[in-house]
Amino acid sequence: MLSVELHAHSAASYDGRDSVDMLLERAAAVGLDALAVTDHDEVSANDTLVERAPEYGLVGIPGIEISSAAGHVLGLNVREAVEPGLPFSETLARIRDQGGIAVVPHPFQEMRSGVLANIEKAELRDADAVEVYNSRLVTGYSNRQARRFAERYDIPITAGSDAHVSDMVGRAVTLVDADEPTAESICEAVADGRTTLQTRRTPWLVSARQAYGNTRRRIRLAIDGLFS
């Protein structure tokens, strides 16, 4: 079983703070075997991730968190960006065209771009896996909804720390029964449902600091855009 972080953001993401090396250092320190970087609509960190992960004894899984027309979708084991704003089904198809898998994060958290704000539950069943534990929770109710949905329809499950700072990498871990320690094998095992979860809540104070930092970065980017 490989211990894998499937949902983390680097400084290449508009809402991330830390470098890929800081994420990798933290992943190694907490005993992970693999790390996916899933920046928002951005893949520029993936080459660095894949190149440097072995230096930390880790497997680097290139990824992206895509802002589809329905909401957020994780593409795992993809190298090329998928354009935002596409329909949910088209977003899944673009991920699979690259040989990746489509995992839907926090689908029931509509205030955080969960897809069920804009699609029917039947469409969610087309995903390769559903994130049923996102460590950035308030009450945990939406996580429980996601788990019940996945169990009802026998959909593979994942967990994700949704880390925007390196300290939060490894809060929610997916244990993957992969045949070998490669990104391809890990993603194949996830889509096959060979996963169990180890989860912890992100402390509220940390989530608040992340939200504050995200807001500052968005304002800065908006101002930069006005004068560029």
Automatic annotation (TrEMBL):
From the UniProt annotation, give the residues forming the signal peptide: none
Instruction: Give the SUPFAM superfamilies listed for this entry.
Output: PHP domain-like (SSF89550)
Q: Which residues form the Polymerase/histidinol phosphatase N-terminal domain?
A: 4-70
Query: Known InterPro entries for this protein?
Result: PHP_dom, PHP_domain, Pol/His_phosphatase_N, Pol/histidinol_Pase-like
Any one Gene Ontology MF annotation carried by this entry is: 5'-3' DNA exonuclease activity
- From the Swiss-Prot or TrEMBL record, give the protein name: PHP domain-containing protein
What organism does the UniProt record list as the source? Halosimplex pelagicum
